[in-house]
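Annotated sample (chain length 329).
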Amino acid sequence: MRRREFMAIVGSAAASWPFVSHAQQAEGVRRIGYLSGTGAAVTEERARGATLVQALQQLGWADGRNIKIDYRWSNGAPEQIREYAAELVALRPDLIFAFGTATMSPLLAATRTIPIVFVQVADPVGAGFVDSLARPGGNATGIMQFEYSLSGKWLQLLREIAPGVTRAAVFRDAALSGGVGQFAVIQSVASTLGIDVSPIDVGDAAGIERSVAAFVRAGHGGLVVTASALAASHRDLIVALAARYKLPAVYFVRPFVVAGGLASYGPNLDDAYRGAARYVDRILKGEKPADLPVQAPTRYELVVNLKTAKALGVDVPPTLLARADEVIE
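Output written by the structure step:
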């Protein structure tokens, strides 16, 4: 072989070496899709995303080193969630992390093979996301939101914190089985508490404002906000309306109270994210979602905002304050 031909072959091979190296490096990186059912502007949701990343790092998975996370933050609207679910599936990730009940139907419609680890999903069995809690059976598992029985405690808490309330408007997403189920439990305890309950179906901002304005005309009212991505997306509006109309309100999760709501009782979301990280780790190491039981939250927290109570003219019972996990002053 002539020297010139030999050098041309060597030069060609050398030019390809860096690409071979990059390809080998890329093969060691696992790809994770992240789909949130709430808005990107919700500060707490981004903080929980950071909690997931930190928990994964403690398990040996570092974003940018051996995993790559593709984020999609929806505004809670079903059409946008469907769009983002399709985008993430098209990326062919090794796993998808899903936050919120509203994310699951679009994801499962788009893939029955890519593993999905979820948090904050209400009634995954009733909704058809898994076969059973003990044996999910498909490509999804994770940390469920809570048992429906918890929903009744919100109305009990409203009665305890504001004894004068005789009517309660209950925010729910009627398009979700979880929204219907939570409201059913609240209805079941309402008569024993002497409170008439009526639903407000969470939709657009204008509809929420009209519904609350109509509800307050009869007086002696309060609010219960059940769990849904739409309620979380409209968090600031709902809290502002409760303040405007002097309505005592109980929420399903702490961020509403941090934003100025009166009280909440619900699972500790950081714990849920850490539990989800452990499932992500196990699946990336070869286990199957079908064999990993859906877990329930292990820690619930009662949070009260005394500044809001004062503005509403509500005297929070000392016994309730003594039970609170956090009091915001």
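Annotation: Residues 150-267+301-328 form a domain with the Rossmann fold fold (CATH 3.40.50.2300).
Annotation: Residues 6 and 245 are 84 Å apart (CA to CA).
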